[in-house]
Amino acid sequence: AQTVTQSQPEMSVQEAETVTLSCTYDTSESDYYLFWYKQPPSRQMILVIRQEAYKQQNATENRFSVNFQKAAKSFSLKISDSQLGDAAMYFCAYRSALQGFGNEKLTFGTGTRLTIIP
Amino acid sequence: SAVISQKPSRDICQRGTSLTIQCQVDSQVTMMFWYRQQPGQSLTLIATANQGSEATYESGFVIDKFPISRPNLTFSTLTVSNMSPEDSSIYLCSVEDSTRSYEQYFGPGTRLTVT
Questions:
Q1: Using one digit for the tens of pLDDT, what is the confidence trace for A85-97?
Q2: Using the 8-state DSSP alphabet, how is residue B70 labeled?
Q3: pLDDT at residue B101 above 90?
Q4: How many Å apart are CA B81 and CA B105, to the nearest integer?
Q5: What number is the average pLDDT over the span B48-71?
């Protein structure tokens, strides 16, 4: 079974600065998908960014980018030019590329609470 | 991405009663999921609901406690039966977009408090 680990329960960053959230995972599969989700106090889960394991290029979405190290099974999220609206819980998630037999589910890490300091 | 609504958004229920949560999607989807998020915790999958077939439950979750319906490709319900205070959680439904690397989109959640 796959596991996802987020070792930073809480992080804080000054507004306009850059912060990196860590995520590691364990799997025996070679093809899979990784995601970062944001959950603000409103509790709505919002997809921030995704990475396909077969792609070597790191995904980017505006101020959000990832550092995907497949051999190290590491998937960190970098937020540049942090804004007050970035304050939220951030969850890393894994999805197998296989279909059927329950492989469609997302396995989540325990989350990192990000605080933005004005 | 799909737009998902859930009803109710929150409820306070007495122990021993049941609550049915509705999940409505604005487009037809094959895979729907129900997750539980206990206070201060991460998300745990309860079950996967495919239209036209029985829901598939994760270890630790049983159909008698969490019956699920999936009558069509845009709607699903989750019932929390014979509730106890330990069932106090946020319940979220999600759908998968197989055309976008299996991204999952979530509803706004239902906050359930059992007294």
A1: 999 999 999 999 8
A2: E
A3: no
A4: 26
A5: 91
Measure B101 CA to nearest chain A CA, in Å: 7
Mutate: best of B1, B30, B38, B102, partner A, most A CBs <10 A: B102
Q: Work out the number of other CB atoms within 10 angstroms of the CB of residue A63.
A: 13
Of B33, B90, B103, the CB nearest to A105: B33
A85 phi and psi angles, rounded to 5 deg:
-70, -5
Instruction: Quote the pLDDT of residue B94.
Output: 96
- Say how far residue A7 (Cα) sits from the centre of its chain: 12
Tell me the C-alpha distance between A94 and A33, whole Å.
6
Task: Mark yes or no for CB contact A109/B94 under 8 Å.
Answer: no
pLDDT for residue A1 is more than 90: no
